[in-house]
């Protein structure tokens, strides 16, 4: 009976130990090269160097991001169907900056209004099964440290 109790208590720990590394390991995620640093999405909100919040109220936003219909119109493009030979082009380095999406921005942190409206600071195109427009918007805004720039007409 003692052996059965030992197995019942140890087996879940062994299974968790086998699965946990996949939770903690880095997976391929879109990133932005910003000078010599990379900017990537943080896995957890508390890990972010830059925190980005979203709002449905355009007047409450500090940055506006437009979702566009084609990659040629975008400042930042995320697609799943492009093969690349540069697997390490955005490898995490000592100068990597992480961006987190938070529920509410603290003073000085960017708040993004994401829409199809043309009046935007940045434009994104996302065609991905794993990366959402919200994450793409957070990444482009985080790469610019929440600063706005007016997207040029194309």
Secondary structure topology:
Layout: H1 2-24, E1 31-34, E2 37-41, E3 50-55, E4 63-67, E5 76-79, E6 97-101, E7 111-115, E8 122-127, H2 133-143
Parallel strand pairs: 2-6, 3-6, 3-7, 4-7, 4-8, 5-8
Antiparallel strand pairs: 1-2
Your description of this structure?
It is a single chain. The chain is an alpha/beta fold and 154 residues long. 22% of the residues lie in helices and 26% in strands. It has two helices and eight strands. Strands 1-2-6-3-7-4-8-5 form an eight-stranded mixed sheet, with helices on one face.
Spatial strand order of the main sheet: 1-2-6-3-7-4-8-5
- The coarse overall form would be globular
Count of DSSP-assigned helices:
2
How many beta-strand elements? 8
Helix content: 10-25%
Class by alpha and beta content: alpha/beta
- Beta-sheet strand percentage? 25-35%
- Distance from N terminus to C terminus (CA atoms, Å) equals 74 Å
Average of per-residue pLDDT values = 79
Oligomeric status: single chain
The SSE order reads HEEEEEEEEH
Radius of gyration: 19 Å
For the biggest sheet, the summary is: 8 strands, mixed
Low-confidence stretches: 18-26
């Amino acid at each position: 009976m003692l052996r059965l109790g030992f197995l019942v208590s140890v087996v879940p720990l062994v299974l968790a130990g086998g699965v946990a590394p996949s939770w903690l390991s880095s997976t391929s995620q879109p990133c932005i090269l910003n000078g010599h640093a990379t900017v990537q999405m943080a896995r957890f909100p508390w890990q972010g160097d830059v925190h980005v919040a979203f709002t449905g109220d355009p007047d409450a936003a500090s940055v506006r991001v437009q979702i566009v219909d084609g990659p040629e119109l975008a400042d930042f493009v995320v697609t799943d169907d492009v093969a690349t030979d540069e697997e390490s082009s955005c490898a995490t380095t000592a100068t990597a900056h992480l961006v987190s999406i938070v529920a509410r921005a603290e003073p000085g942190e960017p708040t993004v209004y994401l829409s199809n409206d043309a009046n935007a600071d940045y434009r994104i195109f996302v065609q991905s099964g794993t990366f959402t427009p919200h994450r793409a918007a957070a990444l482009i805004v985080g790469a610019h440290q929440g600063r706005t720039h007016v997207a040029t007409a194309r």
